[in-house]
Amino acid sequence: MMKNFFAAMAGVAMLAGCAGAINLPIVGKISNGETAQGTVSIDLATRKGNLTIVTLSGLQCAGTYDASDTMNTITIPVTCNNGQTGVVIATRDATGVAGTATARLKNGMSGRFLFGNVSAQMQADFLK
Q1: Is the separation of the CB atoms in 103 and 53 below 8 Å?
Q2: Between the CA of residue 11 and those of 38, 39, 92, 94, what are the distances in Å?
Q3: How far is CA 65 from the centre of its chain?
Q4: Is the pTM of this model over 0.85?
Q5: What residues make up the domain containing 51?
Q6: Fewer CB within 10 Å, N- or C-terminus of the chain?
Q7: Number of folded domains in the chain?
Q8: Please, what sign has the CA dihedral across residues 46, 1, 37, 104?
Q9: Is 91 within 8 Å of 72 (Cβ atoms)?
Q10: How far apart are alpha carbons 75 and 38 in whole angstroms?
């Protein structure tokens, strides 16, 4: 399922006109009800993934991961601009470039997210 992940990523990057990298949107909500959004950026040359999630009030959490990891579910350590740390557990669908994620910070704050190029309707349904 994931063995052709980088071939698919290269195809997506070429179709999107990117020079070796792709960016995918993230939408979600954190446990206090606040909406959050962000980006997953994947550098195809280094196989490094960067995850950034930002809330409307300015909380920003970010982490890096090995984008060549072929597991469907990966754990990404994150550090936030308020000093908090935690993890994002992302489960990728068969394409490897979309899916769902949950986050939990050490202070107990949590969130759920949808990532990848999904329809506006799917995003709206997810945020309900």
Answers
A1: yes
A2: 23, 19, 18, 15
A3: 10
A4: no
A5: 5-127
A6: C
A7: 1
A8: negative
A9: yes
A10: 17
Give the 3-state DSSP-derived string for the chain, with helices as H, strands as E and coil as C.
CCCCHHHHHHHHHHHHCCCCEEEEEEEEEECCCCEEEEEEEEECCCCEEEEEEEECCCCEEEEEEECCCCCCEEEEEEEECCCCEEEEEEEECCCCCCEEEEEEECCCCEEEEEECCCCHHHHHHHHC
Bridge partners of 6, per DSSP, are: none
Which is nearest to 54 in space by CA: 94, 76, 26?
26
CA distances, 18 to each of 4, 12, 21, 64, 98 (Å):
19, 9, 6, 20, 18
Residue range 57-70, pLDDT digits in tens: 999 999 999 988 88
Q: pLDDT-derived band of residue 117, with 50, 70 and 90 as boundaries?
A: confident
Domain CATH code at residue 76? 2.40.128
Six token digits for residue 16: 């999107």
Query: Beta partners for 79?
Result: 62, 85
